[in-house]
Structures are given as C-alpha cells and as structure tokens.
Specification:
Pfam families: ABC_tran (PF00005), TOBE_2 (PF08402). The protein folds into two domains: about 220 residues, 3-Layer(aba) Sandwich (Rossmann fold); about 100 residues, Nucleic acid-binding proteins (OB fold (Dihydrolipoamide Acetyltransferase, E2P)), CATH 2.40.50.140. The radius of gyration is 24 Å and the shape is elongated. The two termini are about 15 Å apart. The chain has eight helices and 19 strands. Strands 6-7-8-3-9-10 form a six-stranded mixed beta sheet, with helices on both faces. A five-stranded antiparallel beta sheet has the order 13-17-14-15-16, with no helix packed on it. A four-stranded antiparallel beta sheet has the order 2-1-4-5, with helices on one face. By secondary structure, the protein is α+β, with helices and mostly antiparallel strands. About 25% of the residues lie in helices and about 35% in strands. The structure holds adenosine-5'-triphosphate. The site of adenosine-5'-triphosphate has 12 residues, from helix 1.
C-alpha cells in the first residue's frame, strides 16, 4: 500500500502561467450552475485539452475564453492581459469551430484572408500572410478552390489556417476532429500537434475523445459537471487517477466491489479499479495467481480482450500473443489495483512477481 497521490487540482488561485490563466470562472445558464468556479492555468506554448462527457461544460468554458459568452464572474488572462471585458474580435485569441464555419461561395484564400480584411489590412499584406499560412497547412495548391470542392480534412485545415493567419496568442479548437472519419482523425491530429509545436502557440482543445486528448496534449483537464476533476499530464491521469470518475473515463478498468488481499478479491465496501493490462494470464501458476477459465475472447487487432472467471471474480484482461480460446484453463494474477472510497483514490496496491 502506498500513500494516495498529492492532489494536483488543489482549489485556489493559480498564479499567471504566461499563456492563459482562468480564475473563478462561473456561469449559470437556465437557472443551473454550468461552470462552477473554475480555475485553469495553461503555460505559454502548451497544448491543453478540456476532456469530459457530454454536457460537462467544455464548450461553455471555451466560448467564455473566446469571448462569445459572458461569464457571470471570474477573470481570464492571456499572456498576462485581462481579456474578459473585451469582445471576441478584440481578444488575442482565435477559434476553430466544430463545423469549420467556412463560406462556401468564397475561395479558400478569401476565407482565410477574411479576418485580416476585417482588420483593414492591405491587399498585398493579406496575400502574403494567406499564402504563408496555406503553405504551413499544405494547402497552397487549393487557394483558388471553394470549400465544397475540397475534402473534410482539407476544410478542417482551411479553418485552422483562418485562425492561424490572425497570429493569435491563444488558439482555441472546439471538437476539431469530430467531423472526420477515424483514419483521417489520426492524421489531422498529428498535423495540428506538429503545427502547434512549430509555432509554439498556446492552445486549448475541447474534446470528448480520450484517445484524442491523450495523444495530442501536454496536459488534460478532465471536467465533470462544470468542475475540473483532475488536471495532469496524460501519463499521470492514466497511472494515478485521483478519482474513480477519472479512472473510468481515461482508459479501461475492471470495477469491482471489495478489497485485494494476497492477490484475492474479498468482500468489502471499497471499489477496486484494475486496468485490464494489470490482469496477467499465464499457462503455469505464479505468485498470487489464481486458476481461471477463459469465458470470452474479443480479438482487438494487435491485442486480445480476454474475460476470465476466477473463484473470486470475473476479470477482463488485455493480452498479446496467440489467440486464447473460450473454455481454456489459465492462471490469472492481479499486478496492480487502485482502491477508491467515496469516489476518491485512497490506495494503490501492487502484488509482487
Ligand atoms: N443557453 C443555454 N441555456 C441553458 N442551458 C445551457 C445553455 N447552453 C448550454 N447549456 C447547458 O450547459 C451544459 C453544458 O453544455 P456544454 O455545451 O458546455 O457541454 P459540453 O461539455 O461541451 O458537451 P458536448 O460534448 O455535448 O458538446 C449542458 O447541460 C447544456 O444543456
């Protein structure tokens, strides 16, 4: 047993971190508290995801950062400048909308140059900046195309270019990949991350897709009911979730009532959380392993999901290697388990091997 991890989500007033600092953000909509006294601090050049289930308040938070929605209270600083009294068009931030919001009758170049035209920039300068940013997103060859004639992934990059051309200090993206198919999503998220790192631009992305958040972000703020449950790196969120909500939301978990004693699950009021990769299967007995029968096997490509029945519990395991068969006898041991009480992590236990 080890001590519970130190909290990284302590309430309090965050010091300005350069990029974005939010303090005490609060919003009531339709008589309900939607954003509940939220603090968040993003370092300059950092990419942070707001991740959480539908309705937890991610988009509402992003819209307040962008200036499309007025907070009831709280402050928003971008690179040390208080912006909450400014309209969206006067903030040093630019937003990429979920549906891209491109004008179908305008060329790609005109779409991208539009925010600069609004700022009354000269035609020559607009042309230079638009071409440079289209080059950055590898779309220069489409500058005279109209959005309906290019692919979804390309439209997404036009929307990104239109935000970047404004040279914002803060880039905001609302579910930027949700309109793309699975394969393209992986490619586009890598592109966005690469460009973000090249430019060193402070970025906040809203997503409900944990894999997307895990693969792109320096840090992830996991939101639940208008609050941040935990704000950590992807690795920490996965290895040391502070709450059962975070443990369940990030990755997979066997959730059982009871406690772990000498490798056996015994009755108890606590919740045990066991990652499927911490359920070890082997042909021969090993320390703390218990005889088990394979009940169900789900091939998942480079690994398989195996449901085994032991005397004390049914467990799900992720294993690689030769496909296992239902009915097969095996030995199942628990390498590591998390214990939650009243929703909070109280202990981690690892069995010796
Ligand atoms: N104008 C409004 N009036 C009343 N309630 C609202 C309004 N706008 C949003 N809400 C409510 O606020 C909550 C948070 O909405 P929000 O769009 O921020 O969630 P989200 O986390 O972005 O969800 P999703 O992933 O589904 O987009 C929801 O319960 C929503 O119904």
């Amino acid at each position: 047993m080890t001590e519970p991890p130190a909290s990284s989500t302590k309430p309090g007033t965050p010091a300005s971190d350069g990029g974005l600092t939010i303090r005490g953000l609060h919003k009531i909509l339709g008589g309900r508290t939607i954003i509940d006294n939220l603090d968040l601090s993003v370092k300059e050049g950092e990419l942070v995801s707001l991740l959480g289930p539908s309705g937890c308040g991610k988009t509402t938070t992003l819209r307040m950062i962008a200036g499309f929605l007025e907070p009831d209270s709280g402050s928003i600083e971008v690179e040390g400048q208080e912006v909450s009294h400014l309209g969206a068009e006067n903030r040093p931030s630019a937003m990429v909308f979920q549906n891209y919001a491109l004008w179908p009758h305008m060329t790609v170049a005109k779409n991208v140059g539009f925010p600069l035209k609004l700022r009354k920039m000269s035609k020559a300068e607009i042309k230079d900046r638009v071409e440079a940013v289209l080059e950055l997103v590898s779309l220069l060859h489409h500058k005279d195309s109209k959005p309906p004639r290019i692919s979804g992934g390309e439209q997404q990059r036009v929307a990104l270019a239109r935000a970047l051309v404004q040279e914002p200090k803060l880039l905001l993206l609302d579910e930027p990949l949700s309109n793309l198919d699975a394969k393209l999503r992986v490619k586009v998220r890598e592109d966005i991350r690469k460009i973000q790192q090249e430019l060193g631009i402070t970025t906040v992305i809203v997503t409900h897709d944990q894999e997307e958040a895990m693969s792109m972000s320096d840090r992830i703020a996991v939101m639940n009911a208008g609050r941040i449950e935990q704000y950590s790196t992807p690795e920490t969120l996965y290895a040391r979730p502070e709450t059962e909500f975070v443990a369940t939301f990030i990755g997979s978990m066997n959730r059982l009532e009871g406690s772990l004693n000498n490798g056996l699950i015994t009755a108890g009021p606590d919740i045990l959380g066991i990652r499927p990769e911490d359920v070890i299967l082997a042909d021969a007995p090993f320390a703390d392993a218990v005889p088990a029968t394979v009940e169900r096997v789900v091939p998942r490509g480079h690994f398989q999901e195996v449901y085994v029945r032991r005397a004390d519990a049914q467990l799900r395991s992720f294993v690689s290697g030769e496909l296992m068969q239902p009915g097969q006898q095996t030995y199942a041991g628990i390498r590591k388990a998390m214990t939650f009480r009243d929703g909070r992590l109280v202990a981690e236990a690892g069995a010796a091997h």
